[in-house]
Specification:
Layout (H helix, E strand, L loop, with lengths): L12 E5 L7 H13 L3 E3 L11 H11 L2 E5 L15 H15 L6 E5 L17 E3 L4 H13 L10 H22 L8 H15 L7
Parallel strand pairs: 1-2, 1-3, 3-4, 4-5
Length: about 210
Amino acid sequence: MKSKRSAPSHLGEVFINCPFDAEYEPLFRALAFAILACGFKPRCALEIDDGSEVRLEKIYRLMQSCQFSLHDISRTELDAVSKLPRFNMPFELGLFLGLGRALKKPRPTLILDAEPYRYQKFISDIAGQDIRAHMGDPLKAMSQVRNWLNTHVPNAALMGGAALSKLYNEFTLELPSRLKHARLEPSEITFVDWMRLTSAWLGLTNRVGPIA
């Protein structure tokens, strides 16, 4: 019988800056799961659908409220129609870094790319930063998130990357039944739905956050 531990309050909020398209979705969901399982709260522009708010203002407000940030700058492919790359992710990374300097309070940041040192070819100004590679693998990305957040948990340790991957695999196996119970189709899952499904499952399994 599993020992029960009450889920701790969030250790901090993590702003996620990444692509939101279908191709990146497996990575995005894995990142959000990892952040929640480590005891932190993911935040991103998809959590509020309000047509009255300017998107950039919403992003900046979220950045101001979050103590941590995660930026995936791996999307450098040219758009099939415009033949141009997307610059939103590097732009938002610059905003967050600038915000920390303006407030004279740098905030812990994880920068992800697909391959080691690849970023030096398209955004060399951040060559002095520590960039982590996920190789397009959701489980590898989760491990990078765990290792980063583990350095910001005082007097405790987070579950290892292998244990986190196993936990995620257990969740994905149970996801179809949970979607059926929630009367949701897989194609209908929004970021808010994902947060609720993940949080509820982690709460039931009592495996959230650091172990003292």
